[in-house]
Fold each of these.
Amino acid sequence: MIFIIYIVALIQNYQKETNVVEESRVCSKCKIEKPLTQEFFGPQQKNKARLHTECRECKLKYMKQWQANKRAEQDVDGKRDKHMYTIKEYTEEEKQRLMKEAYAHIYYQAFDRPITDRQLKDLEGIEE
């Protein structure tokens, strides 16, 4: 156990000695080398100690484009939702068919067997 702790300590010490501190970074979007400061690269959301790989300018352009696309999607969704709740007018045949389907479903739930064709024919006079 002590041997493992000693090896881990050696590895960590080696990493500290060989760790090269970056002074500049190339933006992953615009490919321009910029100083590695919070002025040019903002902190990551999940790990505040690390900086983003894209510069603030590229991140800002991306976010503006994303917001515009999101607003356009919401406008389309809003227009679709207005027509979603319109009341549909059914013909008499559709009403009778839907009533028979509903009755057949209720019958099956109550008696645990499907309704017969004869019983469905007897339902011709069912009113709402």
Note: The mean pLDDT is 80.
Amino acid sequence: MKIFRVLAGLSLLLTAVVAYGVTVKTDYDKDYDLGKLKTFAFKEQSRSDTDPLRTNSLLDNRIKDALRNQLQARGYQYAPDGNANFLVSYFASSMERQNIQDFGYGFPRRWRWGFGPQIWTNYYTVGSVVVDFVDPSSNELIWRGIASQTVSGVNPSDKQVNKGVDGLLKHFVKDARETKKS
């Protein structure tokens, strides 16, 4: 009985570790040379009533600071004076999810004896950040990245935001290398 509990606990822990990683997806204009981008600024954004960043300036500033710091660390210049090659805009959302595990082994499935399948339910929140890079002259979207990960507490921590932004920008640098024209 004790071994079953240990094995069930370990499998739940493994499921939790797998579920809590950062998932990054990107898309970009294949005809646009992302390699020529050197300077950036943040696009003025009007947020809808349903956007959590409208009422949560802590998270808004956390995401903006992470984007600015990590872009600068990768060699991009922050140019808020209007001389930017690309504009950065971002949005956030969160969704409640559940994970149901059925460990239907080890015990007889006889309800009258008080035994039955072991079903564990785990509730968690998935937070997502969508980052757009926009050409300032045409106002066209040139790159989009979406990072999603499980968050804990009311707001994602600095560490979680930085991890998500780092994953996004790693993909951006890879995408920029692919579109660099000779």
Note: The chain has one domain: 2-179.
